[in-house]
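Hi R.,

As promised on Friday, here is the backbone we talked about, encoded as structure tokens. Could you run it through your design pipeline when you get a chance and send me back a sequence?
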């Protein structure tokens, strides 16, 4: 990583307190928009735990952590056709190459949500259009 940037790992726990997923991210800066934010370097949930909301909990925790560092966006890649891409596409803006960005009002909304159940978090996802609102 560039000097001054460190990768932070967030792990997700499931029943029996076993780690079943992680998100690795680091702070970044969007020079064209003059905004601090975060780059998700990797995001993974073990196959047996997929579909249970762990990925969403990890993204919520990462957005919250990024916002606490004055971040204004999260950016990361998603494999086209994968479940991660479908999750990101519900709230973020995804390009044809697989990069997805959560920013603006959508980022703030997700980052400011209190810890809650997966079901409530899913119902509270921001509208994709909110990415275009400051």
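Update: got your reply. Pasting your designed sequence below so it's all in one thread:
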């Amino acid at each position: 990583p560039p000097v001054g940037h460190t990768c932070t790992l967030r792990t997700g726990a499931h029943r029996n307190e076993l780690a079943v997923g992680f998100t690795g991210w680091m702070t970044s800066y969007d020079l064209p928009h003059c905004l601090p934010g975060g780059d998700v370097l990797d995001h993974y949930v073990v196959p047996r735990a997929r579909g249970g909301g762990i990925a969403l909990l990890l993204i919520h925790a990462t957005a919250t952590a990024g916002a606490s560092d004055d971040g204004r966006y999260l950016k990361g890649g998603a494999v086209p056709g994968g479940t991660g891409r479908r999750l990101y596409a519900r709230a973020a803006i995804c390009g044809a190459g697989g990069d997805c960005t959560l920013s603006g009002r959508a980022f703030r909304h997700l980052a400011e949500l209190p810890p809650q159940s997966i079901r409530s978090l899913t119902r509270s996802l921001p509208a994709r259009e909110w990415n275009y609102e400051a």
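One thing I noticed while checking it: Helices lie at 54-68, 83-91, 104-112, 118-123.

Thanks again,
M.
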